[in-house]
DNA sequence: AGAAAGATGCCCT
DNA sequence: GGGCATCTTTCTT
């Protein structure tokens, strides 16, 4: 089986020393591998989102550097792992040189190595493995990525978390990349900075941007005209 | 010190 | 389709 992953060289740091929009599209089809004491799990990336730094209201770095997002301001090729919604982890890859804060959120992938281990980590995933890493939090769960991987150098051959060039299918050119608005972003939602492999079943289902509506204890008058209230 | 929101996923109706 | 789980970060008193 594909033990080529263990001996393969990670992508060079220059790969990540580019704008997030470029890196995001180039990352599709590449391999993300995570090695733990339990074993190796690897996916080919099928869906990503680009986030700029200071110029992007949807970015965690928009309001400046904090203890949480410090890795985003560091050198390219490192993982920025954050915790959200009280239970989920998501992983980003930092782009551009130190001092800038752009990154690419990894949203989905297809498990190509360690499927048994990944399935054990995600017992609720259905058969077939399609849902093992569909969605950013699911991807982290399948790979066993948590905050201890924050700052990991994915360009380091000795790192437990690495990014490798994807296998080039014979007789095929570059995969067809689709593009659309980012998911779960209520600001700058008009920027089509989400990229995915067209037609891939492991891509997360598109949810049109519906901001979370807080339930109101009392109904206010004047809202009976059918106007959307949020 | 306290509160509110959050780059979500799961289960139930 | 919608509510809920669950907690960290950051902003506001």
Provide an overview of this structure.
The protein has 230 residues and is of the alpha+beta class. The protein contains five helices and eight strands. Strands 1, 2, 3, 4, 5, 6, 7 and 8 form an eight-stranded antiparallel sheet that branches. The radius of gyration is 18 Å and the shape is globular. The N and C termini lie far apart (52 Å). 41% of the residues are buried. The C terminus is likely disordered.
Describe the structure using short key phrases.
disordered C terminus; 230 residues; globular; DNA-binding
Give the topology:
Layout (H helix, E strand, L loop, with lengths): L3 H4 L5 H4 L3 H8 L3 E6 L2 E13 L27 E6 L3 E7 L8 E11 L1 H7 L14 H8 L17 E4 L12 E4 L13 E4 L33
Antiparallel strand pairs: 1-2, 1-6, 2-5, 2-8, 3-4, 4-5, 7-8
The structure holds a DNA duplex (13 and 13 nucleotides).
Helical content stands at: 10-25%
> What is the typical, i.e. mean, pLDDT?
86
Give the total of beta strands. Answer: 8
* Main beta sheet: 8 strands, antiparallel
Query: What is the number of helices?
Result: 5
- Given helix and strand content, the structural type is alpha+beta
Task: Compute the CA-based radius of gyration.
Answer: 18 Å
Overall shape: globular
- The run of helices and strands is HHHEEEEEHHEEE
Please state roughly what percent of the residues sit in beta strands, choosing from under 5%, 5-15%, 15-25%, 25-35%, 35-45% or over 45%: 15-25%
What low-confidence regions span 5 or more consecutive residues with pLDDT below 50? 208-230
How far apart, in Å, are the first and last alpha carbons? 52 Å
For this structure, the quaternary state is single chain
